[in-house]
């Protein structure tokens, strides 16, 4: 069962307030402004990844489960949960952004399975000594170098497919 605090999948509908920024770190300030103007879905600011790491560490400590949570086991658990997410999309054909045709129980199920993926991902990163928030910043910087916006705009080609 996924760890749940107070939220539910209906959070999907609740966090569309564009009036206040909830992104303390942005990779591109102008991008954030654009998101606010376009009404793009945003997350709550909390819990952050360190909060999630700590909560999961408390959860496993309380159960004496750290003995099972080595990196390889966490990776297998993560992949298993990704499979569970895939099952929810299986045989449905293309699904429109915002999942307009999904029922509330289906949305909640998806929220739980995605949470399982994130929880195991965060714990895997912890057990591999990867500082995930900072690693994401470094990787996004690399992605921007690899895919300059003016070069790849509107194209989904892999960087290896560009000639120059
Ligand atoms: N050894 C375990 C077992 C569970 N969990 C935590 C992390 C996941 O968020 C969630 C996974 O629980 P389940 O293995 O019961 O998987 P599901 O919640 O997906 O249940 P089901 O497989 O019935 O859909 O519980 C954990 O940390 N370590």
UniProtKB/TrEMBL annotation:
One of its GO terms (molecular function) is identical protein binding. Residues 11-20 have a biased composition (Basic and acidic residues). InterPro entries: dCTP_Pyrophosphatase, DCTPP. Its EC number is 3.6.1.12. The lineage of its organism: Eukaryota, Metazoa, Chordata, Craniata, Vertebrata. It catalyses: dCTP + H2O = dCMP + diphosphate + H(+). Keywords: Cytoplasm, Hydrolase, Magnesium, Metal-binding, Phosphoprotein. It is an enzyme of class 3 (hydrolase). Residues 21-31 have a biased composition (Polar residues). The keyword Cytoplasm applies. It is found in: Cytoplasm, Cytosol. Hydrolyzes deoxynucleoside triphosphates (dNTPs) to the corresponding nucleoside monophosphates. Has a strong preference for dCTP and its analogs including 5-iodo-dCTP and 5-methyl-dCTP for which it may even have a higher efficiency. May protect DNA or RNA against the incorporation of these genotoxic nucleotide analogs through their catabolism. GO terms for cellular component: cytosol. Its cofactor is Mg(2+). Homotetramer. This is dCTP pyrophosphatase 1. Residues 1-47 are annotated as: Disordered. The keyword Cytoplasm applies. Its main location: cytoplasm.
């Amino acid at each position: 069962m996924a760890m749940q605090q107070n939220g539910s999948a209906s959070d999907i509908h609740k966090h569309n307030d564009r009036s206040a920024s909830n992104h303390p770190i942005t990779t591109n300030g102008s991008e954030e402004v654009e998101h606010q103007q376009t009404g793009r879905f945003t997350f709550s600011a909390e819990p952050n990844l360190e909060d999630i790491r700590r909560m999961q560490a408390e959860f496993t400590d309380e159960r004496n489960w750290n003995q099972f949570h080595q990196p390889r086991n966490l990776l297998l658990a993560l992949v298993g949960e990704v499979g569970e997410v895939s099952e929810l999309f299986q045989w449905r054909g293309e699904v429109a952004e915002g999942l307009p045709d999904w029922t509330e129980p289906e949305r909640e199920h998806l929220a739980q399975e995605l949470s399982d993926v994130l929880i195991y991902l965060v714990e895997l990163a912890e057990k591999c000594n990867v500082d995930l928030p900072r690693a994401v910043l470094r990787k996004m910087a690399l992605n921007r170098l690899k895919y300059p916006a003016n070069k790849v705009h509107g194209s989904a080609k892999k960087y290896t497919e560009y000639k120059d």
